[in-house]
Amino acid sequence: AEDSLSAARPAFEAAPRGSWEEGDDADWGWQKWLLWPAIMYFFWAQSLVCDEYFVPSVQVFSETFKIPDDVAGATVMALGCNGPELFVNVIALFITHSDIGVGTI
Q: Second label for 22, Cα 20 to 30 Å away, from 37, 53, 74, 90?
């Protein structure tokens, strides 16, 4: 009988070996602390872009089409956040015929 992870085995076996294997933490010990400032910077940058560009554009859109704020927050903001992901998965499913889009749409 085939186990449920058999489809994932080729991808797992093709993954590069290196510093993520057990016992290799000593190879880049202090360098992993450099990840935290980078992570914090990216969170700050995302909040800046959302505050300066995304929220005002949703407000203009909802005022132009006379959409109530709660409806705009539930629909327009959701489409703005997940629209790129939906677009990529539709392209992957229908144009490139990849399996990446099947479970995400």
A: 37
3-state helix, strand, coil in the chain (%, to 5): 70, 0, 30
> HSE of 98 in the Cβ direction (CA atoms, 13 Å)?
11
- How remote is the C-alpha of 67 from its chain's centroid? 28
Full DSSP string of 60-82: HHHHHTT--HHHHHHHHHHHHHH
Residue-wise pLDDT tens digits, 18-62:
655 555 555 667 777 888 899 999 999 999 998 899 889 889 999
- pLDDT in the model for residue 1: 45
Alpha carbons 88 and 96: distance in angstroms, whole number: 10
Residue where the block lists tokens 């927050």: 73
